[in-house]
Amino acid sequence: MTGPAAAFARSLVGRPGSRWRLPTPALVVDLDAFEANVARMAERARAAGVALRPHAKTHKSAWVAQRQIEAGAVGVCCAKLGEAEALAAAGVADILVTSPVASLEVAERAAALARSGVRLALSVDSPDGVATLGSAAKSAGLVLPVQIDVDVGTHRTGVVTPNDALALAVAIAAAPALGLRGVQGYGGNWQHTKGAENRLESAREGMARLNAVVQTLRGHAHAVEVITGGGTGTNAADRELGVLNELQAGSYIFMDNQYVDALGDDEDGAFASSLFVQAQVISANAPRWVTLDAGLKAFATDGPKPRAVTAPFGPDDYFFFGDEHGGLMRPEGTAIALGQRVELTAPHCDPTVDRYEAFHLVRGDVLEAIVPIEAGRQSQ
Question: If you write DSSP's letter for every residue of 237-286 in order, what string do you get?
Fold first, then answer.
């Protein structure tokens, strides 16, 4: 963050009441809730005897990644190489890129990142991807660990059949600059399904597909050391089914409205909302509502509406009022002052975070720190 607003925000750090003086709209993380969430998921992974590699597409922040690693995570996942490059530059040293590498340009960047000393693993789902990555790794004088991405029902990326995976494993074994790390299966479309039993059944079917790939590869003497995937919504199912030995859950640290609505009181939902957007009232002339300085540009819009958590407003009072503006229904008989601060939960945490350059870390009513979101703003 740069400029006068950022300088003013930094001047607030450590001052009583500073939480409620931020330049708005501001992305706020409640540290008490965040820290409890990090500790809870780390303990679940330890108790299940599986590795935790949280997905950094949720937060895109080296500070958050380091807190997760300090709590026991083996590293982080990134959705794109650009995210990995940004987090590595900020000191994150163990990264798995979960989207398949396709073009030579991206493969060459990946090789350069691995040469810098980062423990980098990559994903493939096609023979062309294997050939491209193998060529870049060979030119760089590296042996890159790769995992086979498996379509477990999402139909977004991944090989479809065990024989497709076997063909890729053979190609990887024939590439002197590549080494098979394992397999990946992620059911993104299961994560927001309502009902723990419904999510378990979806995960059971998808993990059966993944396990069929694992057994086929092992049956042909291919080592499959890491079986990675899973998410916040299926965390309990992932641990119960026992196919995965590395978990990629990410959104548990923040718990947006989509997850709160889907998971409810299920075990998967036992995490607190810790991510908020702070706004302020900029107009109170209308008799039935007031106007905030946080609209379509302040939130992701692919989930439920933002929900106010600051009195006197209720969770259903917010409405989008334009690019820069949001509205809040005015509680009858309540005086609302200009500049009055309101915090709202995020509809969908990942793309909401991507709209901002920094997290404002608060404890109680005090701003404790401001940390950058290094891999945000659509890192390529």
Answer: HHHHH---SEE---GGGT--HHHHHHHTTSGGG-S---EEEEEEEEE--S
